[in-house]
Amino acid sequence: MKVLKILALMLSLVLLSRYTLNLNPDEEAQGEVPKIIIVMEKTTEILEDSSMVIDKINEYIRPLISAEIDILYIEDSVYGKNLNYMFDAAEQVDVVFLPYLDNVKRFQSSGKLFPLDQLMSQYGDGILENIIPDEMSIGKIDDRLYGIPTNRSKGYVYGFQYRKDIAERYGIDISGVEKLEDLTSIFESLKKSNPEMRPFVPPFYARTWDGLDDYYYPFGVLMDYGQTTEVVNLYETKEYADYIQLMYEWNQAGYMVNTTLNYSHDYHYYLRSDEVFCRLNTDSPGMLEQESRILGKQLGYVALSPVFTCSVDLTYALWSVTSSCKHPDKAMQFLNLMYSDPVIANLLYNGIEGEHYEFVDQSKGIIDFPEGFDSESARYMQSHGWKFGNQFITYVWEGNSTDLYSDTKKYNAESLKSKALGFSFDTSAVQEEYMDCNNAKSKYAHGLEIGVLNPRIYLPKLLDELDKAGIDIIISEKQRQLDDWLKDKNTMEADH
User: Fold this and answer.
1) Region for residue 225 given its phi and psi (left: phi exceeds 0; alpha: psi -120 to 50; beta: otherwise)
2) Considering the entire predicted model, what is its pTM?
3) H or E segment at 134?
């Protein structure tokens, strides 16, 4: 079975990505410099020229750290699964991107991650200079550092992106939209004007709660953007029931793109279509300009919530070194460059000057596509390049404010903070309940949230199965841990 699993892994990696590792098994024997293998999540990136970019990076870092890198991109939809396969098959993985602190905790508990404290003190000066000290503690487990957070926007706002050209073409006035339900009349108008339209791309969720460190598993949340400290069952709330009912009604009315329970298509694919008008999404400084550049279409945005920050918003996107890494010192030296050296940051994020971008205003660091290229013909475009560590030292794309990064820092500082910001839930006491609740959630929640399953039939089924799976036990444990954490926090604040 293990042989079959390894063969399946090898085949899946070939199918998942056209970018293969350029490993030479004789390199170390010949005294060549160590090669650090980086495993990275691929979302909407265009990576045709990734090997060219990696070669350029290696040309730059070889004399600096006596090492080279290679990057394996894995599609985000199967990233966690294939990362598990790679670890199980003892594939070389040295530096790994982990989307959530939950991933860091899981891999650390199974001994797959290397503690970074000593490496950071020896080789991480550039990281320490660029990451806020309080935020660095986010990646700690049992007071040891296992995950390095990234510099990026760290707030969340719930709203919708829409195609400006379609709004103009059909005379759509979005100025009166203040809540999600207000879109119903707009969709009705669009369908009357063009019966072929399916104006809405369904989301997986629209978050107005603090999941208390649980992004995928909101079994016990704080409602009202985390401005309460009572842990409740999200799936029993009126907000959730109203939301999934609206999704179902929209789907029944033909307002959504054709969906099935397996719906997972890249939303950019749909938004390029003239039969699609909008989708739910978060927003931050530069987001709208970035998405417009990717689509080649001008987008507008309407916020339907305040900007707020929960622990999960701080813990999204971390970098770790694996315990199997043969050269952890070289791995950390490269991470240090990734966070602190604009040459490396811009190569990873923007590619090579003249090939993938050109300067519009070099003195201000403003760039655009080279002549003859755009978002559809580009050969290297990291639409999620901020995941690489420190977006604040990269160039700004044309169309954004020259104050993009100072605006982002202000956005982070001024967001509404959850009362549980900094709280991390220890799931060890409720692992069995988590597994059982996740099985129940997997059956129904996705279908309910994209409008495929009828809430009148399937929400009661979900609630019943969650109840039997022990969701109340999870909620009780979360409430206990949160109360203890708040008590300790209040005591510390009083002492100061």
Assistant:
1) left
2) 0.76
3) helix 133-136
